[in-house]
Amino acid sequence: MPFDSELVMHDGTTITADIAPTSLTRTGGSAVIDLRETPAKGLACVLVMGADLAEASDTILVTIEECATVGGTYAEVARFPLLTKGTGMPGTYIRRFSAEEQFVRAKIDVVDADAGADFTVANVFILLAYHPFKRL
Q1: pTM, entire model
Q2: What tens digit of pLDDT does each residue of 83-133 get?
Q3: Phi, psi of 107 (to 5 degrees)
Q4: Structurally, how many domains does the chain consist of?
């Protein structure tokens, strides 16, 4: 993987269904990231869509969430735009956010509009980066 694995929320693994990780162990390409004692409150999340969606009516929505415990109840801190086929993919999106809790994750919600269980999108990377800005 060309990125620091400690900053990767989703590693490019093909997405075929909703993903809401609750573990530091990477499954389905996604993992919860432990911010530990980082002094950085200002963070940026980079969503890299390396490929377009397969079908016109399918959608993908990525939200960034935080939680005090790795397997607890997460709360949204940032949201990317709802993406459909032909809307800026391939492309890169950046959302700044402030994290108060120790754990963050990328929640990926997909809609297979024809209900054919054939949703697929490849080469999606979701990465964390430090962003020097004042608390939101």
Answers
A1: 0.87
A2: 998 888 899 999 999 888 999 999 999 988 777 677 888 899 999 987 655
A3: -95, 125
A4: 1
Helix H or strand E encompassing 51: none
The boundaries of the domain holding residue 69 are: 5-130
Domain annotation covers residue 75: yes
Residue 123 lies in a domain: yes
Q: What is the CATH number of the domain that holds 82?
A: 2.60.120.1110
What are the φ/ψ torsions at residue 120 (nearest 5 degrees)? -160, 140
Alpha-carbon distance 126 to 27, whole Å? 14
Q: Which of 9, 18, 2 is nearest to 95 (CA)?
A: 9
Q: pLDDT tens-digit profile of 13-42?
A: 999 889 999 999 998 899 999 988 665 667
**118 belongs to a structural domain:** yes
